[in-house]
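Quick question about two entries, pasted in order.
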Amino acid sequence: MLGFFLWEELWGGAFADTLYDHLLGRMTGPVAIGIGVVAVYLFVRMWRERGHYLHHDGVTLFRGADGSWPLASIRDAMVTRNWLGIRSLRIDVGQGAGANPELVKTYMLREPPDAVRDAVMVAVAQARGVPVPASVH
């Protein structure tokens, strides 16, 4: 059987074309539908997260309407990557290694991620009463 497939493949018979059409031709439709479903899911997910913005009132850091952390409890802010390579801004609140909440994906930020990280750390330093000579806009 393997010899027959090799013969048909090398000399380009109709059997090889039919086999290719049946195997790959029928697979392209469901694969295209799957890619479309994943693309719509990712778009809707990014659209929902567009309101996850960061602001603070001098005491608490807020992320949109669903997350808040006291500035005094924040130890550090860092930019990390997930298993797909997508970067996100996270804070260390000192509750263990796995408890670093994600503030926002970096593709959702208007400013560079390092500038936002520095702004968060300046707000933390000001909340602790440490004089900070720099200003972040």
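Here is the second entry:
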Amino acid sequence: MIFKDIKQNYPVFILDKQELKFIQGKVISTSFPHIDMNMKTAMNTAANQMVVDITIDVNGNTATYVIPENLSITSSGNLILSTDRDGLIREIEAMKNAAEQIISNVDYQKNIIEKSTLLLAELNPIYKKEIETEERFSKIENSFYEMNKKLDEFIKGFKDKNNET
């Protein structure tokens, strides 16, 4: 079913992509298809596309969406609106596949970062000095941390020894 055919009290299936949460809303009202002069195409000219205004209630909260009439699934910000569950299933599968693709490339991306850092240091003396400075600071911080830890152990041992006598 497409949005122009949806009627009052029909369900609308909503996916909140930010929260990854499924919500079912109910159509409160729909308008007749009309031309939306505000929609722009990629060339920044008026698209003169036919749209419907659909007001949806979700748990007592209502919102009105201007949706192209010939769609069965559309997005509004972080929300995906669909006239049927299958539309959301396809969207969720696409999100899952994209996430799996990103995760499968993590090692490759880490390798790029590591090698890029070395190449940048090789090609740019200023970048190389920054890296060397960061490494020196890191070594100094670690030395202070180790000294602090040893000093804490010494003081604790000294207190324990004084408490024994």
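Reply: DSSP finds three helices and seven strands in the chain. The longest strand covers residues 21-30. Hope that helps.
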